[in-house]
Specification:
By secondary structure, this protein is mainly α. The protein has one domain. Helices cover 79% and strands 0% of the residues.
């Protein structure tokens, strides 16, 4: 029987949650994670007799986790695009300077 390894999916998805803080750029890690999980799950569903049912269930859970991280990163990315397109750059820089001054205190 073939094994489905979910470690890569979980590592990439967890890394994408950490990268979400950088304007939603974790989408660049979450998307490949979801695509890999989806490809492996489709392969396992095409030939279910070659894979352990428990491995298929674990890969399904990994794909769900990857999808959740993809949605979170996508929403945060869209929020940042909206924020930067609708906010005047001078206002943004002023808020940034104020936050920097508060941090230095």
């Amino acid at each position: 029987m073939k094994k489905l390894n979910t470690t890569l999916i979980y590592v990439l998805s967890s890394l994408s949650i950490l990268c979400c803080c950088f304007a939603g750029l974790g989408i660049l890690v979450a998307l490949p994670s979801f695509l890999i999980a989806n490809k492996k799950l489709n392969e396992a569903n095409a030939y279910p007799e070659e894979y352990d049912p428990e491995d298929i269930k674990q890969m399904n859970n990994a794909r769900t986790f990857a999808l959740v991280t993809l949605v979170i990163n996508g929403l945060y990315f869209l929020y940042n695009v909206y924020y930067f397109t609708t906010t005047d750059w001078d206002v943004f820089m002023e808020q940034y300077k104020e936050a920097l001054e508060q941090y230095q205190k």
